[in-house]
Amino acid sequence: MKIAGLFSGIGGLELPFHARGAEAALLCDIWDASRCVLEEHFPGVPLVDDIRNLDTLPAGVQVVTAGFPCTDLSQAGRTAGISGDASGLVSHVFRLLHGRDIEWLVLENVRNMLVLDRGRAMAYLVSELEALGFQWAYRLVDSRFSGVPQRRHRVLFAASRHHDPREVLFADEAGEPPAQTFREDAFGFYWTEGLSGLGWAQDAVPPLKGGSTIGIPSPPGVWIPGAAVGHKLVTPDINDAEALQGFDRGWTEPAMSGKKKGPRWKLVGNAVTVGVAEWLIDRLYQPGSVVIPGRELTDLERWPNAAFGRAGRRWLFDASAWPVRRTYQHLLDVLNPDALAPLSHRAAAGFLARTKRSTLTFHPDFLVDLEAHVAVKRAEADRAFGQRGSQAAA
């Protein structure tokens, strides 16, 4: 296959194609940091910076991928909607498809676009696809199905004029795994929250988030009940985050360019989980029989988690977020507990204060360990302050 990757980021959608011998005819991303990573891992592939300046797709392209910006769609973003300055750039994907006969279009974005503005983003996407003569299908999936311990829900789209996308997205169904799949030795959470949400995940981390454009890291927290006091609440580093997305550790190092604080967290947080793309792409190469029941929708009150459509008609599919179940990597098998940084006193104390104002229900042992962690880190900070004072006096 010959592919063109639009909004390529760090290549999560394109990497599995590349690994299967496909030819990348074009990669496009407006961010310099992304292009540094793409240039390193996709040598020789033409890179374009701004999709708005791209007049046409290269000749012979059979597949177009586009993990278009989620900034205006995600709960962590501006939620301005599909017409926002960033997410609205997806319109250029449809512009480039006018008059081009391709085999497949693959889109990916956040779960929130199913409900934001009462599904306005979804209505826009499918109306544009149908105007171009595509039939389409989408499915909400959880990255954990690919084996990584990151509970990350994303919407995958597959659309074609020549093929049935149901044979790609609905040819596999594994269902939610049993509870005993997940160990109880580590739990992921958002230490930056605590009032209305926690992102709690057993034997996994919640979805990785990008942080800011100036490189402020936003790692999740991990609670390890069996660790020593002071090391029960820790955070993974950026190399861990890359592994949690299915990339090789160090994948985004080319973006640093000698900077002390770089954009790696944002790059990884915005990426497509590699294993998720691998499953989808394997089905593009080898479609299967539809194994999930569907029923036509006559009154679409809200967008379901999985659907198919063509020519103005819609069908709901009772698909889980786990099409397959790859061998699961437990969180503490991916992370090295001895190498994880303890949550600082300032971060832990702020989080503890928010939990006390919150109406959320917390695991009682978690709160006990949190309070003990704050006390230990406060004592360490006091000792360090005292030592600095003694040295200054001397």
UniProtKB/TrEMBL annotation:
The active site is at C70. Pfam families: DNA_methylase. It comes from Thiocapsa rosea. Keywords: Methyltransferase, Restriction system, S-adenosyl-L-methionine, Transferase. Its EC number is 2.1.1.37. One of its GO terms (molecular function) is DNA (cytosine-5-)-methyltransferase activity. It catalyses: a 2'-deoxycytidine in DNA + S-adenosyl-L-methionine = a 5-methyl-2'-deoxycytidine in DNA + S-adenosyl-L-homocysteine + H(+). PROSITE patterns: SAM_MT_C5. GO terms for biological process: DNA restriction-modification system; methylation. It is an enzyme of class 2 (transferase). Belongs to the class I-like SAM-binding methyltransferase superfamily. C5-methyltransferase family. This is DNA (cytosine-5-)-methyltransferase.
